[in-house]
Structures are given as C-alpha cells and as structure tokens.
Amino acid sequence: MHLIAYRPEYRIYLDTHLNMLLYEQLEEMTFARHLPYYLEDWQRALEQLQPGFTVLSDVRRTLGPNLDLLPTFLRSYELMQTAGVVMMAEVYPSGPTRMPVSRILNKLSSLPTRQFTDVAAAEDFLLGYGTPIAS
Fold it and tell me: Are the beta carbons of 117 and 93 closer than 8 angstroms?
C-alpha cells in the first residue's frame, strides 16, 4: 500500500497492483467544517489508478454524519466516476450500517456502492470487481 494522504480527518492509500484505493475516514471528520486538501488528495490518488479500479471506504471510526461536507463528498464521487471506478465498498460499524450521508450520496450519485460491517468481507467482495495491474 502506498500512502497518498495523511490528514487528521482521513487517510488515502493505494494498492496499485490491485488497482484499489483505500479510504479511511477518522473521528475528526465528524467535526470538520471544511477540508482544504480533500479533493486535491482524491485527484492525486485517482491519477495513479487505471479505469476499472475499486474503492474500499472504511468509515467505522466516524462518530456521526457531517452534512456540512456533503457537497465535497459528492464532488469526490464525481471524480471517482470520471476516473473509472467500478465499485465502492463502504465499511460501517456494527449496528445501523448506513449513515444518513451515505444514503443521500447514493441518491444523488450513480456510483455503484455496497455496505459492509467487516473489512475482510468488503475486500473479498471487491476482488471480484477490480482490474489488477500486471507488475
């Protein structure tokens, strides 16, 4: 895994062999009012992937929804679609598995998404969708 962005609110990693992006959303995202580098970080990561990539979005550590950031999140979805994402797996904590922000984004975007409560299950699911890159 290659680290692309290490911010207080999130981390972005790439597995270029699997053509997969790993996104970790952290507790601090719950209280953020703006993310000055968020879209730039996503763009930098997406430029290193090939069309047909997958995204594993781990939001288990987020404390709750942040509707203030909805336009920024929607723009990141648009960037992923333009870059050629084929599937995103979102991992939530046990209990209510879909946060309000995820429901809203899924209504506003045609990004193919599936929700999980287990990271390993999400990774296994994505392996069936990605386009691995020969080394």
Answer: yes
